[in-house]
Every structure is written in structure tokens, then in C-alpha cells.
Amino acid sequence: MLGKTAGSLYWMARYLERSENNARLIDAGFRIALTRSNTAEAEWRSVLVTAGQDGRFRQAHDEDYSSQRVVDFMLRDPANPSSILSVVKQARDNARTARTYLTREVWEAVNTSWMTLGTLLKRQVREDDLPDVLAAIRRQNGQVRGALTGTMLRNDGFHFAQFGTFLERADNTARILDVKYYLLLPSVAHIGGSIDNVQWETILRSVSAHRAYRWLYGAEISALKIAEFLILYRQMPRSLAFCCERMEEHLAHIQRGYDDETEAGRMAAALCRDRLSAPIQAIFDGGLHEYLRSFLAATAALARQAERDYRFVE
Amino acid sequence: MMRGKGWGISFFDEMTGHGDSGQAGEIRPPYRDYHHWFEREDAARIQRKTQQAEALFRTTGITFNVYGDDDGDERLIPFDVVPRIISAGEWRRLSRGIEQRVRALNAFLHDIYHRQEILRAGRVPTDLISRNEAFLPMMMGMDPPGGVYTHISGIDIVRTGADEFHVLEDNARTPSGVSYMLENRETMLQMFPELFAKISVREVGDYPLNLLKSLAACAPPRCGGTPTVAVLTPGIHNSAYFEHSFLADQMGAELVEGHDLRVVAGRVQMRTTQGYRPIDVLYRRVDDDFLDPLNFRPDSLLGVPGIWDVYRAGGITIANAPGTGIADDKALYSYMPDIIQFYTGEKALLPNVPTWRCSEPGHLKEVLDRLPELVVKEVHGSGGYGMLVGPAASRKEIAAFRRKLEANPANYIAQPTLSLSTVPIFTKAGLAPRHVDLRPFVLMSPQGVTITPGGLTRVAMSKGSLVVNSSQGGGTKDTWVLED
């Protein structure tokens, strides 16, 4: 397939995943803003930092971290290239570019997402409508994912798209942890130190895993366990370990299909082997923040390498 | 928006024959079976189907971008559910005329870029070529693979009476609309399957396969084995992008942009995930000017630096051939009957519309005197832009156009306002006649000429309007050619 097409499928998947992750971040932030108005501003700021949009937000709105401003900026500001509306448009543009490689169902699901969001986000979203709009975004993404896994041939194009999805997801989970790591640290340092209930719940909510966590660990709320769950727990579809395994797997499929090993394939294997095999205590001992920073750098390097190996661009 | 003003011209309606000498109100034979079905059909159901069709077009993304709209606003082309029906006999006549015309066009292009016999014989004035912006001196003496210039053409035809067909224009540069022809049929099959069980309509769905075969049959001399065909598009913001991706998809060909291609080892090659792979036939939907920044417009980002040299050396087929656009010139159009006579030795089977060349002082004077009743077009124009429809224009518009025309007469031709035939469209108030034209699609290769039965019927959606171009709000219909 054309390098450009592979790149378009990969970016289409990344942008779709990004829109869904950002919808989750807004959802979690909104919850805190409702329940703890005194910490709302700080929470919105950390949401923006996690989504990598804080710099641009401050250029536009200074320090005015009111719910309405942040939500509108993240949902629909055309001047914000990372707003959900912008991101979904970019997903659709990439889908149009790669259209000959998509099944009709996938294309229509992506196109419908774009049309639906265009309608939902035409005007500023009222607070009481926000949960519905965020749910709609997640639902639309579910449709695209269903069409992808249900109708696409398992050829190189499919694997490039999946690789993009899990790369974006790993990046997102690592960022959430990195922005909140200072909350986790004190409680680890002091045996029996307590972790703020609302805060840990927010972290888990940001990856739609608060119920799964409870189901696994019961009422035992510890920073160590939360970090372990989101980094090393292989059954959790947003954990770093799960995402890395999928990246390795999809790149392995591509390499087999082409009968050609690449540096990107080797890097993905190394990522799983070197960063996700130590127990969680060792990660904390070496510094959680440092660990997450270097993980983010490694995934970024992997993305660049795949782009080169498979000639997404000239 | 153009609005008719009740010009008191009688129109031929293809369903009722109204406006012809025949009995008004009778249903003409090609439409009888359909009309019989329609009479018994519940209007509310058809209304619902119409809305469904629109939603389907949106979801599928069968849209086009209108130039000049901000941020590539995507619009739907209105679709009407009443088919335009052509009898087997009518189609036989039409297709003979179309084939004759396309063969003459191809012979003319070959002549112009080689010995220029037609100019020496004085049948066509030399400056019509030398002043034609689409004339490419670089093509002189160049032999395109298989001798084909017009691989794909669209010949616009209007009907003015029961037996009166005229060619309105020739589109040999990059004719578009074939994807709408195919999607319209697909939509009708989905909406009214029972109709196709009742009425024998000729198939159009094999067009993409015929296109692929026709292009592959024009492979360049240096092609080894099965030819690799690719479609070159300017990209997703081009107004016809849907069509480009649709055709690539249907042919199973790669859809490439300029930045996917490079000249490697004397071949045009595409950048794949596994390295560069050569292309043999490039169906380009990019204008000549943009093909090769090294040899044409240096600021073009759409083309492939060096493709021209590969073409000269027989390393690639470019369809349609560079320089083919001279055939689209409306001043040249007025010479088509002579051109057909010159190369085929026969009279044109399909007549032209009478045309005044504003470059000629006598013609210009007459046109200026009769502006309110004529249609005036730019010679290089397309898409219905920059034209004057005299009877539908205000005094102010006519005065403004008069100044433009006097400033640059050679840029214009004029034609009488044609009484275009009508075909009913479905409205909330029942059937209502609207003006139509027809663009049949023609494929040419060394193995022959293939014309898809029917083509794209464009329809002016507002009452009385004669402008059918989609860029001006026109719609489309499915076109049926009946089996014998």
C-alpha cells in the first residue's frame, strides 16, 4: 500500500482515539468541578496539561480556568487544533485520504461521527447537556471501532490503524499518570498515608476504570495498586502493558506480511520487554515521574521510527 | 439563482411529448411502463424514499466542494428519483454520433500535434490553435501510447425535440460526473428494486471495469507484464475528490497525489510502505499545467517533477494525454462539423448548436444587438461560470456583460437560447417538468470505443431555469437506456 495511505490510517485511528480520551478527561474534570468548586480551577488546569492544550489555552484565555471556558475550548474551539471538533475533522480527512482502503462501514461510521458532532457542537454546550454530548462522542467512536474490527480485512492497513490506536492510548494513560503522580507519591512514601478519594477516583474515571478497579481490588485504595493497575495490569485495555503488547503484536503482523523486519518492530518489542516487566515497587523506587517521562519519550521515538520505516511521508 | 420568466418558448417534454406536434398529455413509449408504475405508487412513499436517498448520499459522502465557498464546504448534488428514459432506438442513433465525434476529436488532436494537415487545408484557422491556452507545443511530434489522446471523454448533449439532438460541448480534458451516474443507478436499485424487475434497463455498473481495461490497453512501450494503473488526484479538497477515490476504489487502483510519486530509474514510481513501485498508466485528474513542476508550472505542488521526460521516453501513459484540452475550447467547438467531415469523410451525425464567434466582427455585431435573447459563454470556461443567459438576466447584468464582451470579444461565443427538453422531477405537488441535458461517457483505447449506455443526466432544479451545472445548483437523475 502507499506510504501515505498507511500514514492516513494510522493518523485516522490516533485522532479518533484522541477525541475519545479527551472526552473522558473533560468528563472527569467536570465531575470534580461540580463536587468541589474550590479545586475546580486547579483540576481544569491539570486536565488541559494532560491533554497538552494548556499553553494554547493560556494564550487565548490567560488564567481564566472557568468550567465553561475550558469545556468550550476543549470541545469545539476551531482555533484549538486539539479540540474534539478539530480532531474529529482531522480523523475524517485522513479517512477520506485512505478511503479506498476502508470498508464502506468504517468510512460511514467515521463520516457519521463527524456529521453528528458537527451538529452537537454547533453551539456552546450547556452544562446539563454535557454528559450526553460526551456520551455521544464515546458512542460514535464505539461505532467506528466496531466497524473496524468487524469488517476490515486483517491486512497491513488494519494493523497500521490498530498500531495508531494503541500508541495514542498508551500516550494518554501515561500522561494522565504523569500529571497526577504528585498525588500518588506522598501516600506511597508514608505507609498508611491516605490518598484523596476524589482524586484517585478522577484518575480512574479518566480511563473509564473506576469500577473495574473496585471489582479487582475491592475497597483497598492505594497509590501503588492504582499505578500497578494502570501500568502493568495486562487485562486492563488502557494500561501501558496492554497497549504496548498490542503495538508489538500489530507491528509483528505487518513485518510478517512484508517478510521484512524493521527497527520500529524491534523498538516495540524492547518497550514491552524492558519497561513493563519490573514489579511496581521497583518503578516507584526508581521514580515514577522519571519512569513516565522516559516511557513517553520511548513511545514518541517509536512513532517517529514507524513513520520512517513505513514511509508515511517522503 | 436563475429563474425562468415564461419566455413563451414551447419545450419538448420527454415523458409527455408535450410541446411537440404530437398529442399533448400522452405518455411517450419509453416512459409508459414507468408511468404506469408511478401512477399506482403512493406519493408519500416516494417522498420518504427521496429523503432516504439524501441521507444516504450524506453518509456515503457523495458530495462536492464548491470553489469559492469558505473552508471547502461540502454540498450534496440534489438527486431526483424520476429516471430519464431513452429508448433503444434513440440510443443507437446517439451512440453512433458520439463515437463518430470522439474518433474525429482523437484524429484531430493527433493531426494538430503532428502534421497539422487541417490547418494547411485552411479548414480551421491557425490562430485558433496558436492562441489556445490549452495547446501544448511540447506535445508536437510526441506519440502517446496506442495513439490515444482522449481516453475518457464526456460529450454534452441537449435535446430540443422528438428527433432533435445537438452536441452542446465536448469535454476531453478531465470530464467528471461518472461517479454520480453510477451512484444514481445504485441508489435507484436500492430504492425501487421492483422497477428494475419490471423494466429492462441496460447495465451501467461495468464502467469501472471497462475503464480499467481501456486504460490498461494503452500501456506504454516500456511496461512489462500486467500494467499498474493509478489515479492522480489533487487531494481531498478538490471538488471532484469523491469521484477520484470512488473510481480508484472501483478499479482496484491506487489513488495517488503528486507527493506520493517520484521519478526513480527512469520510471514514475509510487512510494509504498515497502519502497518505490513503478506505475504504467496514470489516470490523472489534474490539469496539464500542474503535471510537472520541472516542465510546466514551477509552483505546482500537485504534480511529479520529471514525469514529462518519462512520458517522452515511453515510460508512462498519461490519460488523457497532455494537450488534449484544446478540444474543450468553445471557439474550436464551432468548427466541429468541419473537423468531423475532414477526418471521417462523413457529415456529423449529431449537429452542433448554431454558434456565433465573437472574435469575428460580423458575428460580434449581431451578438451585441441580440444580447437579451442569447446565451454567451467564455471560450475556455467550464462549470457554468462566467456565462450570460440573456433571457434570464436583468438589464443591469446585460449591460455589465456587454462591457466585458466588448473589451475582449475573442474570449466569447454566443448561442441561441435553446429550448432544452424537459423531464419531470418529483415534487411535493406531483410531477413537474424541468430542463435536462445529458453527458454520456466514452472510453477509447486501441481496441475500440466503449460508450456506457446512458450517462449523467443533469437537471435544472428550479422552474424554468436552463442552467443544469451542479456548481450552479443543478441536480442529477438516473438515466435509463431501455433494452431492445
Automatic annotation (TrEMBL), chain A:
InterPro entries: ATP-dep_Glu-Cys_Ligase-2 (IPR051680), DUF403 (IPR007296). It comes from the Bacteria. PANTHER family: BLR5612 PROTEIN, SLL1039 PROTEIN. It comes from Sphingopyxis lindanitolerans. This is DUF403 domain-containing protein. Residues 1-310 form the DUF403 domain.
